[in-house]
Here is the input.
Amino acid sequence: MRRQWDIFCTVIDNFGDIGVCWRLAKQLAHEHDQSVRLWVDDLVSFATIVPTVNPRAQQQNILCIEICYWQQAFVEAEPADVVIEAFACELPEVYVTAMLQKKKPPIWINLEYLSAEPWVTQYHGLPSPHPHFCLTKTFFFPGFVLGSGGLLREKNLLARQDAFDQKADQAFLQRKGLLNRKDDEIRISLFCYENAPIEKFIQVLSESTVPVLLIVPQGIVADRIVALFNHASSQINALIHHKQLTIQIIPFMEQTDYDLMLLSCDFNFVRGEDSFVRAQWATKPFIWNIYPQQEGVHWKKLDAFLTLYMADLPVEAASAVQAMWHCWNGKYEMNSLIWENLAAFHRSLMQHNKNWVNQLLELEDLVSNLVQLAENRL
Ligand code: TRH
Here is the structure.
């Protein structure tokens, strides 16, 4: 049944919050024929990953989704049938009051951050009554196992990935101005936080026995790399050559193109939540830079994922993956051996990732689960 959905998204920092909400909005509208309104408090960040977004428009329609600028002074709006509060962003007071005034209060869902920790299945779907009003929020936890809310995955994801053959890859490289492939080259996309051992890794890559192309989107990390080489040219589109390593700094891509880049590269360094999930669908070996949290609580999250992901991985490959991920997140110092050990398992990791994806495909996708949950309660 066609329902009205309101998705509320605050951009805390970076692009993950809006990245997730945008995928969610598109899937709800295009695959489940739902009427979607997306409230975002930072249209500039949104326009960085979706350039058709006009950062100055209070209200606009893109791909059949109504996008509204969520201002501090919230304009009154009729609440939808289902309200998604993404990542515990707080709903505007006037909106909550309007929810109360509806004959049938909306289904209110708090979409939480993704985690592989075992407690997720216990908390997924739990109700939380509002302390003052007669409204109940439901906690929705994405995850990698049965009993969690699942992962964002479009219905045509696999077909689109299959269609990305050599010819499509070539066309993609040309369209984005990326360098052509060299024989035996290793192609790496690098998207990470500042806490990753970037300079050390660059040193390691430059000593590689085969040519390496490192593709880096513009930003603080790219700035650091440019500074490392005292490179004179402008940061965006800079090409830096050092021994076996070529670094190409590129403009930040539109989200749909970023997904293609993950398919195009041999290794993907990803971070946060959304690029981390997309790298898994791409099936190329990936290295996760987890969003650092206070008191190191992110380590539990990282190791919980490794435990699940590596359950069927032979021990040598598993320890190569773990060593690289731990180094990349700052547990030990990075060195060539760590990287070479991991790179040596490229082929077996490709196979492992296909199996991992097949395991994930057995779960219902996040948006189908969300629609189901809402329908059950409406
Ligand atoms: O930007 P992030 O660091 O976002 C993070 C996480 O969501 C984290 O959990 C949250 O707490 C924090 O923000 C506030 O990394 P993430 O999640 O991978 O999101 C990046 C988005 O940017 C993703 O949708 C992919 C997109 N992207 C592009 O569209 N083009 C690009 O060139 C690149 C590199 C990324």
About this structure: Residues 4-153+363-377 form one domain. Residues 12-17, 19, 49, 113, 191, 217, 252-253, 255, 258, 271-276, 291 surround 2'-deoxy-thymidine-beta-L-rhamnose (CB under 6 Å). The mean pLDDT is 95. The chain is about 40% helix and 20% strand.
